[in-house]
Protein backbone atom coordinates (compact mmCIF):
# COMPACT_ATOMS: atom_id res chain seq x y z
CA UNK A 1 0.00 0.00 0.00
CA UNK A 2 1.44 3.37 -0.98
CA UNK A 3 0.39 6.98 -1.31
CA UNK A 4 -0.86 7.94 -4.75
CA UNK A 5 -2.50 10.96 -6.27
CA UNK A 6 -6.16 10.49 -7.08
CA UNK A 7 -8.01 12.25 -9.90
CA UNK A 8 -8.96 15.15 -7.69
CA UNK A 9 -5.32 15.82 -6.87
CA UNK A 10 -5.61 14.81 -3.21
CA UNK A 11 -3.62 11.87 -1.92
CA UNK A 12 -5.50 8.65 -1.22
CA UNK A 13 -4.39 5.30 0.12
CA UNK A 14 -3.93 2.76 -2.65
CA UNK A 15 -5.56 -0.51 -1.69
CA UNK A 16 -4.87 -3.67 -3.65
CA UNK A 17 -7.88 -5.88 -4.25
CA UNK A 18 -7.10 -9.41 -5.43
CA UNK A 19 -9.86 -11.14 -7.32
CA UNK A 20 -9.51 -14.86 -7.89
CA UNK A 21 -11.63 -15.84 -10.86
CA UNK A 22 -13.11 -19.35 -11.14
CA UNK A 23 -11.13 -21.62 -13.48
CA UNK A 24 -14.01 -22.11 -15.90
CA UNK A 25 -15.22 -18.52 -15.98
CA UNK A 26 -15.39 -16.90 -19.40
CA UNK A 27 -16.26 -13.42 -18.11
CA UNK A 28 -14.08 -10.56 -19.36
CA UNK A 29 -11.75 -8.77 -16.92
CA UNK A 30 -13.67 -5.55 -17.54
CA UNK A 31 -16.94 -7.15 -16.42
CA UNK A 32 -15.34 -8.77 -13.39
CA UNK A 33 -13.75 -5.45 -12.39
CA UNK A 34 -17.04 -3.60 -12.74
CA UNK A 35 -18.94 -6.10 -10.58
CA UNK A 36 -16.21 -6.20 -7.94
CA UNK A 37 -16.07 -2.42 -7.65
CA UNK A 38 -19.87 -2.31 -7.30
CA UNK A 39 -19.66 -5.05 -4.64
CA UNK A 40 -16.99 -3.15 -2.66
CA UNK A 41 -19.07 -0.02 -2.87
CA UNK A 42 -21.38 -1.68 -0.34
CA UNK A 43 -18.57 -2.06 2.17
CA UNK A 44 -16.85 0.59 4.18
CA UNK A 45 -14.56 -0.22 7.06
CA UNK A 46 -12.79 -3.57 6.91
CA UNK A 47 -9.66 -5.09 8.46
CA UNK A 48 -6.51 -5.10 6.33
CA UNK A 49 -6.78 -8.84 5.75
CA UNK A 50 -10.25 -9.53 4.52
CA UNK A 51 -11.50 -12.14 2.08
CA UNK A 52 -15.01 -12.60 0.73
CA UNK A 53 -15.91 -16.00 -0.69
CA UNK A 54 -19.70 -15.82 -0.65
CA UNK A 55 -21.67 -13.43 -2.82
CA UNK A 56 -25.34 -12.60 -3.18
CA UNK A 57 -24.97 -11.35 -6.70
CA UNK A 58 -25.27 -14.02 -9.40
CA UNK A 59 -22.43 -12.75 -11.62
CA UNK A 60 -19.93 -12.88 -8.76
CA UNK A 61 -21.24 -16.28 -7.59
CA UNK A 62 -20.74 -17.70 -11.06
CA UNK A 63 -17.39 -16.17 -11.91
CA UNK A 64 -15.48 -15.30 -8.77
CA UNK A 65 -13.93 -17.57 -6.12
CA UNK A 66 -12.77 -14.82 -3.79
CA UNK A 67 -12.24 -11.10 -3.39
CA UNK A 68 -9.45 -10.23 -0.98
CA UNK A 69 -7.96 -7.14 0.55
CA UNK A 70 -4.68 -8.74 1.44
CA UNK A 71 -2.79 -6.30 3.60
CA UNK A 72 -2.42 -7.96 6.99
CA UNK A 73 0.11 -5.40 8.17
CA UNK A 74 -2.58 -2.75 8.05
CA UNK A 75 -5.22 -2.36 10.74
CA UNK A 76 -8.63 -1.20 9.60
CA UNK A 77 -9.18 0.43 6.21
CA UNK A 78 -11.96 2.79 5.20
CA UNK A 79 -12.58 1.77 1.61
CA UNK A 80 -14.44 4.97 0.82
CA UNK A 81 -11.31 7.09 1.09
CA UNK A 82 -9.14 4.68 -0.87
CA UNK A 83 -7.92 4.32 -4.39
CA UNK A 84 -8.75 0.72 -5.33
CA UNK A 85 -6.43 -1.22 -7.65
CA UNK A 86 -8.19 -4.39 -8.72
CA UNK A 87 -6.03 -7.36 -9.76
CA UNK A 88 -7.89 -10.13 -11.55
CA UNK A 89 -6.25 -13.54 -11.83
CA UNK A 90 -6.75 -17.30 -12.12
CA UNK A 91 -4.57 -19.94 -10.54
CA UNK A 92 -2.35 -22.28 -12.47
CA UNK A 93 -2.91 -25.89 -11.46
CA UNK A 94 -0.08 -27.49 -13.43
CA UNK A 95 2.04 -27.85 -10.31
CA UNK A 96 5.77 -28.40 -10.23
CA UNK A 97 7.72 -29.35 -13.34
CA UNK A 98 11.46 -29.79 -13.66
CA UNK A 99 13.89 -28.22 -16.08
CA UNK A 100 15.74 -31.28 -17.40
CA UNK A 101 18.99 -30.81 -19.20
CA UNK A 102 19.54 -34.10 -20.97
CA UNK A 103 16.72 -36.04 -22.63
CA UNK A 104 17.92 -39.44 -21.43
CA UNK A 105 19.24 -38.40 -18.03
CA UNK A 106 17.55 -37.72 -14.76
CA UNK A 107 19.39 -34.46 -14.36
CA UNK A 108 16.91 -32.01 -12.99
CA UNK A 109 18.43 -28.57 -13.24
CA UNK A 110 15.75 -26.75 -11.33
CA UNK A 111 12.13 -26.82 -10.24
CA UNK A 112 9.75 -24.74 -12.20
CA UNK A 113 6.24 -23.33 -11.65
CA UNK A 114 3.95 -21.16 -13.70
CA UNK A 115 2.59 -18.35 -11.52
CA UNK A 116 0.22 -17.56 -9.95
CA UNK A 117 0.37 -21.21 -8.84
CA UNK A 118 -2.36 -22.98 -6.88
CA UNK A 119 0.42 -24.49 -4.76
CA UNK A 120 1.71 -21.08 -3.63
CA UNK A 121 -1.68 -19.61 -2.83
CA UNK A 122 -2.11 -18.63 0.82
CA UNK A 123 1.61 -18.77 1.73
CA UNK A 124 1.86 -14.96 1.86
CA UNK A 125 -1.03 -14.67 4.28
CA UNK A 126 0.27 -17.51 6.46
CA UNK A 127 3.68 -15.90 7.00
CA UNK A 128 4.06 -13.72 10.06
CA UNK A 129 7.09 -11.44 10.43
CA UNK A 130 8.03 -8.33 12.31
CA UNK A 131 6.07 -5.22 11.35
CA UNK A 132 6.43 -4.11 7.78
CA UNK A 133 8.89 -6.74 6.49
CA UNK A 134 6.54 -8.24 3.91
CA UNK A 135 5.13 -4.90 2.73
CA UNK A 136 8.58 -3.33 2.43
CA UNK A 137 9.89 -6.23 0.36
CA UNK A 138 6.84 -6.21 -1.88
CA UNK A 139 6.98 -2.45 -2.40
CA UNK A 140 10.70 -2.50 -3.01
CA UNK A 141 10.70 -5.29 -5.58
CA UNK A 142 7.67 -3.91 -7.42
CA UNK A 143 9.42 -0.53 -7.61
CA UNK A 144 12.60 -2.04 -9.09
CA UNK A 145 10.57 -3.96 -11.69
CA UNK A 146 8.67 -0.77 -12.50
CA UNK A 147 11.91 1.24 -12.86
CA UNK A 148 13.40 -1.39 -15.18
CA UNK A 149 10.24 -1.55 -17.23
CA UNK A 150 10.33 2.24 -17.62
CA UNK A 151 14.04 2.17 -18.55
CA UNK A 152 15.15 4.34 -15.64
CA UNK A 153 18.89 4.83 -16.06
CA UNK A 154 20.46 2.36 -13.62
CA UNK A 155 23.72 4.34 -13.63
CA UNK A 156 21.89 7.18 -11.94
CA UNK A 157 19.74 5.07 -9.64
CA UNK A 158 21.44 1.78 -8.97
CA UNK A 159 19.45 -1.37 -8.44
CA UNK A 160 19.91 -4.99 -9.40
CA UNK A 161 16.61 -6.75 -8.76
CA UNK A 162 18.51 -9.11 -6.44
CA UNK A 163 17.08 -9.89 -3.00
CA UNK A 164 18.89 -11.77 -0.24
CA UNK A 165 16.94 -13.16 2.72
CA UNK A 166 19.20 -14.47 5.45
CA UNK A 167 18.83 -15.86 8.94
CA UNK A 168 18.54 -19.05 10.98
CA UNK A 169 16.94 -22.15 9.43
CA UNK A 170 13.21 -22.76 9.47
CA UNK A 171 12.11 -19.14 9.77
CA UNK A 172 10.37 -18.79 6.45
CA UNK A 173 13.00 -17.51 3.98
CA UNK A 174 12.20 -19.93 1.16
CA UNK A 175 8.47 -19.61 1.81
CA UNK A 176 8.73 -15.82 1.69
CA UNK A 177 10.54 -15.94 -1.67
CA UNK A 178 7.76 -18.10 -3.11
CA UNK A 179 5.05 -15.93 -1.59
CA UNK A 180 6.70 -12.75 -2.84
CA UNK A 181 6.89 -14.08 -6.39
CA UNK A 182 3.25 -15.21 -6.25
CA UNK A 183 2.14 -11.84 -4.93
CA UNK A 184 4.08 -9.92 -7.57
CA UNK A 185 2.74 -12.15 -10.33
CA UNK A 186 -0.78 -11.20 -9.18
CA UNK A 187 -0.05 -7.50 -8.64
CA UNK A 188 1.73 -7.13 -12.00
CA UNK A 189 -0.67 -9.24 -14.03
CA UNK A 190 -1.73 -6.21 -16.07
CA UNK A 191 1.85 -5.66 -17.19
CA UNK A 192 3.08 -9.28 -17.49
CA UNK A 193 0.67 -11.86 -18.88
CA UNK A 194 2.20 -14.57 -16.72
CA UNK A 195 5.16 -15.28 -14.45
CA UNK A 196 7.66 -18.10 -14.18
CA UNK A 197 9.31 -19.31 -10.99
CA UNK A 198 12.56 -21.26 -11.27
CA UNK A 199 14.07 -22.73 -8.12
CA UNK A 200 17.75 -23.64 -8.33
CA UNK A 201 18.99 -25.74 -5.46
CA UNK A 202 22.65 -24.85 -5.18
CA UNK A 203 23.20 -27.76 -2.87
CA UNK A 204 22.12 -30.49 -5.27
CA UNK A 205 23.76 -28.56 -8.06
CA UNK A 206 27.05 -29.13 -6.33
CA UNK A 207 26.62 -32.69 -5.28
CA UNK A 208 25.49 -33.81 -8.73
CA UNK A 209 27.30 -31.64 -11.12
CA UNK A 210 30.60 -30.34 -10.08
CA UNK A 211 32.50 -33.00 -12.02
CA UNK A 212 30.72 -31.79 -15.17
CA UNK A 213 32.38 -28.40 -14.70
CA UNK A 214 30.42 -25.34 -15.81
CA UNK A 215 28.91 -26.96 -18.93
CA UNK A 216 25.64 -28.01 -17.33
CA UNK A 217 25.25 -24.71 -15.55
CA UNK A 218 25.47 -22.97 -18.91
CA UNK A 219 22.82 -25.32 -20.25
CA UNK A 220 20.52 -24.63 -17.32
CA UNK A 221 20.81 -20.89 -17.80
CA UNK A 222 20.13 -21.30 -21.52
CA UNK A 223 16.79 -22.81 -20.54
CA UNK A 224 16.12 -19.95 -18.14
CA UNK A 225 17.09 -17.49 -20.88
CA UNK A 226 14.40 -18.99 -23.11
CA UNK A 227 11.82 -18.12 -20.44
CA UNK A 228 13.23 -14.59 -20.14
CA UNK A 229 13.13 -14.02 -23.90
CA UNK A 230 9.36 -13.81 -23.68
CA UNK A 231 8.95 -10.16 -22.75
CA UNK A 232 5.41 -10.76 -21.52
CA UNK A 233 6.71 -13.05 -18.78
CA UNK A 234 8.13 -12.01 -15.45
CA UNK A 235 10.78 -14.51 -14.38
CA UNK A 236 11.75 -15.18 -10.76
CA UNK A 237 14.92 -17.18 -10.17
CA UNK A 238 15.35 -18.50 -6.63
CA UNK A 239 18.85 -19.56 -5.57
CA UNK A 240 18.31 -21.30 -2.25
CA UNK A 241 21.22 -21.71 0.17
CA UNK A 242 23.36 -19.39 -1.90
CA UNK A 243 26.22 -19.71 0.59
CA UNK A 244 27.02 -23.18 -0.75
CA UNK A 245 27.97 -21.57 -4.05
CA UNK A 246 30.02 -18.76 -2.73
CA UNK A 247 31.59 -20.71 0.11
CA UNK A 248 33.28 -22.89 -2.47
CA UNK A 249 34.76 -19.88 -4.19
CA UNK A 250 36.13 -18.62 -0.91
CA UNK A 251 37.55 -22.05 -0.15
CA UNK A 252 39.37 -21.97 -3.47
CA UNK A 253 41.50 -19.11 -2.20
CA UNK A 254 42.50 -21.36 0.67
CA UNK A 255 43.25 -24.11 -1.86
CA UNK A 256 40.80 -26.60 -0.30
CA UNK A 257 38.20 -26.86 -3.05
CA UNK A 258 38.53 -28.85 -6.31
CA UNK A 259 38.92 -26.61 -9.34
CA UNK A 260 35.83 -28.12 -11.05
CA UNK A 261 33.65 -26.85 -8.21
CA UNK A 262 35.12 -23.39 -8.54
CA UNK A 263 34.35 -23.40 -12.24
CA UNK A 264 30.71 -24.23 -11.47
CA UNK A 265 30.46 -21.42 -8.93
CA UNK A 266 32.03 -18.85 -11.21
CA UNK A 267 29.83 -19.96 -14.01
CA UNK A 268 26.65 -19.59 -11.88
CA UNK A 269 27.66 -16.11 -10.73
CA UNK A 270 28.51 -14.98 -14.26
CA UNK A 271 25.23 -16.33 -15.57
CA UNK A 272 23.27 -14.64 -12.78
CA UNK A 273 24.97 -11.38 -13.68
CA UNK A 274 23.94 -11.83 -17.26
CA UNK A 275 20.29 -12.67 -16.72
CA UNK A 276 19.73 -9.87 -14.24
CA UNK A 277 20.38 -7.37 -17.03
CA UNK A 278 16.94 -8.22 -18.38
CA UNK A 279 14.19 -6.01 -16.96
CA UNK A 280 11.77 -8.92 -16.51
CA UNK A 281 14.00 -10.92 -14.12
CA UNK A 282 14.06 -10.92 -10.32
CA UNK A 283 16.69 -12.95 -8.49
CA UNK A 284 15.73 -14.15 -5.04
CA UNK A 285 18.38 -15.73 -2.82
CA UNK A 286 18.39 -17.22 0.66
CA UNK A 287 21.14 -18.09 3.09
CA UNK A 288 21.52 -19.52 6.58
CA UNK A 289 25.09 -18.36 6.86
CA UNK A 290 25.50 -14.81 5.65
CA UNK A 291 29.09 -14.67 6.82
CA UNK A 292 29.96 -17.39 4.29
CA UNK A 293 28.63 -15.52 1.27
CA UNK A 294 31.35 -13.84 -0.70
CA UNK A 295 31.42 -10.07 -0.69
CA UNK A 296 31.05 -9.67 -4.43
CA UNK A 297 27.77 -11.53 -4.22
CA UNK A 298 26.56 -9.58 -1.19
CA UNK A 299 27.20 -6.36 -3.11
CA UNK A 300 24.89 -7.51 -5.87
CA UNK A 301 21.89 -7.72 -3.55
CA UNK A 302 19.80 -4.54 -3.30
CA UNK A 303 17.95 -5.83 -0.26
CA UNK A 304 19.59 -7.88 2.42
CA UNK A 305 16.78 -8.70 4.78
CA UNK A 306 17.38 -10.61 7.99
CA UNK A 307 14.56 -13.04 8.72
CA UNK A 308 14.76 -13.95 12.38
CA UNK A 309 12.42 -16.02 14.57
CA UNK A 310 8.95 -14.51 14.93
CA UNK A 311 7.78 -12.77 18.09
CA UNK A 312 5.39 -14.42 20.56
CA UNK A 313 2.60 -12.64 18.72
CA UNK A 314 3.87 -14.13 15.47
CA UNK A 315 3.97 -17.63 16.90
CA UNK A 316 0.44 -17.23 18.30
CA UNK A 317 -0.82 -16.09 14.90
CA UNK A 318 0.92 -18.99 13.14
CA UNK A 319 -0.87 -21.43 15.47
CA UNK A 320 -4.16 -19.66 14.86
CA UNK A 321 -3.72 -20.07 11.11
CA UNK A 322 -2.91 -23.80 11.57
CA UNK A 323 -6.00 -24.18 13.72
CA UNK A 324 -8.04 -22.34 11.09
CA UNK A 325 -6.81 -24.72 8.41
CA UNK A 326 -7.78 -27.78 10.49
CA UNK A 327 -11.23 -26.27 11.03
CA UNK A 328 -11.59 -25.51 7.33
CA UNK A 329 -10.82 -29.16 6.54
CA UNK A 330 -13.33 -30.18 9.25
CA UNK A 331 -10.70 -32.06 11.24
CA UNK A 332 -11.54 -29.83 14.21
CA UNK A 333 -15.15 -28.78 14.59
CA UNK A 334 -17.26 -26.75 14.99
CA UNK A 335 -15.62 -24.09 12.84
CA UNK A 336 -15.20 -20.92 14.85
CA UNK A 337 -13.83 -17.52 14.10
CA UNK A 338 -10.20 -17.08 15.13
CA UNK A 339 -8.68 -13.70 15.85
CA UNK A 340 -5.08 -12.59 15.60
CA UNK A 341 -3.45 -10.96 18.59
CA UNK A 342 -3.82 -7.58 16.90
CA UNK A 343 -7.56 -8.16 16.48
CA UNK A 344 -7.85 -9.23 20.12
CA UNK A 345 -6.09 -6.02 21.13
CA UNK A 346 -8.43 -3.95 18.94
CA UNK A 347 -11.42 -5.28 20.87
CA UNK A 348 -9.53 -4.83 24.17
CA UNK A 349 -9.55 -8.60 24.81
CA UNK A 350 -13.28 -8.46 25.43
CA UNK A 351 -14.94 -11.84 25.70
CA UNK A 352 -17.69 -12.60 23.20
CA UNK A 353 -18.82 -15.56 21.10
CA UNK A 354 -16.43 -14.44 18.39
CA UNK A 355 -13.37 -13.93 20.54
CA UNK A 356 -13.86 -16.72 23.05
CA UNK A 357 -11.80 -19.46 21.46
CA UNK A 358 -8.85 -17.20 20.54
CA UNK A 359 -8.91 -15.68 24.02
CA UNK A 360 -8.97 -19.10 25.65
CA UNK A 361 -5.97 -20.26 23.73
CA UNK A 362 -3.99 -17.07 24.07
CA UNK A 363 -4.76 -15.61 27.44
CA UNK A 364 -5.15 -18.64 29.62
CA UNK A 365 -3.37 -21.49 27.95
CA UNK A 366 -0.96 -20.48 25.21
CA UNK A 367 2.25 -20.98 27.10
CA UNK A 368 3.86 -22.95 24.30
CA UNK A 369 7.34 -21.85 23.38
CA UNK A 370 9.49 -22.80 20.43
CA UNK A 371 12.66 -21.49 18.85
CA UNK A 372 11.51 -21.80 15.24
CA UNK A 373 8.00 -21.34 13.90
CA UNK A 374 7.95 -24.58 11.95
CA UNK A 375 4.74 -26.20 13.14
CA UNK A 376 5.18 -29.95 13.19
CA UNK A 377 2.11 -32.04 13.84
CA UNK A 378 3.62 -33.25 17.11
CA UNK A 379 4.23 -29.69 18.37
CA UNK A 380 0.88 -28.48 17.23
CA UNK A 381 -1.03 -31.32 18.89
CA UNK A 382 1.09 -30.81 22.01
CA UNK A 383 0.05 -27.16 22.19
CA UNK A 384 -3.56 -27.99 21.57
CA UNK A 385 -3.53 -30.77 24.16
CA UNK A 386 -2.23 -28.28 26.69
CA UNK A 387 -5.01 -25.85 25.82
CA UNK A 388 -7.69 -28.52 26.03
CA UNK A 389 -6.36 -29.98 29.31
CA UNK A 390 -6.35 -26.53 30.87
CA UNK A 391 -9.86 -25.85 29.61
CA UNK A 392 -11.12 -29.11 31.17
CA UNK A 393 -9.27 -28.37 34.38
CA UNK A 394 -10.83 -24.87 34.57
CA UNK A 395 -14.29 -26.22 33.89
CA UNK A 396 -13.84 -28.89 36.59
CA UNK A 397 -12.81 -26.15 39.05
CA UNK A 398 -15.86 -24.09 38.13
CA UNK A 399 -18.14 -27.09 38.65
CA UNK A 400 -16.60 -27.93 42.03
CA UNK A 401 -16.89 -24.25 43.13
CA UNK A 402 -20.56 -24.21 42.10
N1 LIG B 1 7.38 -16.43 10.20
C1 LIG B 1 6.65 -17.48 9.84
N2 LIG B 1 5.31 -17.41 9.78
C2 LIG B 1 4.57 -18.49 9.44
N3 LIG B 1 5.08 -19.69 9.10
C3 LIG B 1 6.41 -19.81 9.12
C4 LIG B 1 7.26 -18.72 9.48
N4 LIG B 1 8.52 -19.14 9.40
C5 LIG B 1 8.47 -20.42 9.00
N5 LIG B 1 7.22 -20.83 8.83
C6 LIG B 1 6.80 -22.16 8.38
O1 LIG B 1 7.89 -23.05 8.63
C7 LIG B 1 8.18 -23.88 7.52
C8 LIG B 1 9.65 -23.75 7.11
O2 LIG B 1 9.87 -22.52 6.48
P1 LIG B 1 10.96 -22.32 5.34
O3 LIG B 1 11.35 -23.60 4.69
O4 LIG B 1 10.48 -21.24 4.43
O5 LIG B 1 12.17 -21.76 6.20
P2 LIG B 1 13.66 -21.41 5.74
O6 LIG B 1 14.02 -20.18 6.48
O7 LIG B 1 13.75 -21.38 4.26
O8 LIG B 1 14.47 -22.62 6.32
P3 LIG B 1 15.91 -23.17 5.84
O9 LIG B 1 16.90 -22.11 6.17
O10 LIG B 1 16.08 -24.40 6.67
O11 LIG B 1 15.82 -23.45 4.39
C9 LIG B 1 7.22 -23.46 6.41
O12 LIG B 1 6.19 -24.41 6.35
C10 LIG B 1 6.66 -22.12 6.85
O13 LIG B 1 5.32 -22.00 6.46
MG1 LIG C 1 14.92 -22.54 2.90
TrEMBL record:
One protein family per Pfam: AAA_lid_TRIP13_C
Protein task: Plays a key role in chromosome recombination and chromosome structure development during meiosis. Required at early steps in meiotic recombination that leads to non-crossovers pathways. Also needed for efficient completion of homologous synapsis by influencing crossover distribution along the chromosomes affecting both crossovers and non-crossovers pathways.
InterPro entries registered for this protein in UniProt: AAA+_ATPase, ATPase_AAA_core, ATPase_AAA_CS, P-loop_NTPase, Pch2-like, Pch2_C
This protein's GO CC annotations: chromosome; nucleus
GO molecular function, one term: ATP hydrolysis activity
Family: Belongs to the AAA ATPase family. PCH2 subfamily.
Subcellular location as annotated: Nucleus
Alphabetical GO biological process terms: meiotic recombination checkpoint signaling; oogenesis; reciprocal meiotic recombination; spermatogenesis
Listed name of the protein: Pachytene checkpoint protein 2 homolog
Keywords associated with the record: ATP-binding, Differentiation, Meiosis, Nucleotide-binding, Nucleus, Oogenesis, Spermatogenesis
Chief localization: nucleus
Lineage: Eukaryota, Metazoa, Chordata, Craniata, Vertebrata
Residue span(s) of domain AAA+ ATPase: 159-311
Amino acid sequence: MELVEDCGGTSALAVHVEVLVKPRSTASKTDVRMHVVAFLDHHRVITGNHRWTEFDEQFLRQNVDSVAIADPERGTIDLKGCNLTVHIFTLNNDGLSTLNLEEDEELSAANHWLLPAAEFQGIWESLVFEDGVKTQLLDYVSTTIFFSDKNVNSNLITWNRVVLLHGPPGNGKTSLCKALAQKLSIRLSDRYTYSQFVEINSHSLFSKWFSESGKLVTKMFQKIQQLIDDEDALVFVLVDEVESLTAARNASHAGTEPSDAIRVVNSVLTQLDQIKRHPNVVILTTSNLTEKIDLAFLDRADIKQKIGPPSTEGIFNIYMSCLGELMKCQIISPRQQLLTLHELETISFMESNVSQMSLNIHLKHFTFKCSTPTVTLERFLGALDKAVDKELEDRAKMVSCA
